[in-house]
């Protein structure tokens, strides 16, 4: 089970790190072409989401790997579950059903890491 948790956490960390860096660093106009939802939010909100995703990505790996405050790993995973739940809510409200499968998979994977790491404390 530990190997599965590491693999899922690593994949999630890579995905969220990439997405978070893009949201935190790219101009909003450039993001609108790739992520239409960003046109409905301020640049600060989009940057905040990006920074939260970066923090979540780091939190999935470093605390558990170093043994320093390992409780932060399942907390980070739980934060990513919340981000995906809010993303799902937004996409349902805007009838953007085509992106929901990705959001649901990311939510379930983050939930798997959260439950698995909380259980391992």
Task: Tell me what you see in this structure.
Helices cover 80% and strands 0% of the residues. The chain has 121 residues and is an all-alpha fold. The chain has one domain (2-119). The protein is globular, with a radius of gyration of 15 Å. The model has no long low-confidence stretch (mean pLDDT 97).
Q: What labels would you give this structure?
A:
121 residues, mainly alpha, 0% strand, single chain, 5 helices
**Average of per-residue pLDDT values:** 97
- The number of distinct β-strands equals 0
Euclidean distance between termini CA atoms: 14 Å
Uncertain runs are: none
* SSE topology string: HHHHH
Give the helix/strand class: mainly alpha
Task: Tell me the major beta sheet.
Answer: none
Number of helices, counting only DSSP H or I runs of 4 residues or more: 5
Tell the overall outline: globular
What is the gyration radius calculated from CA atoms?
15 Å
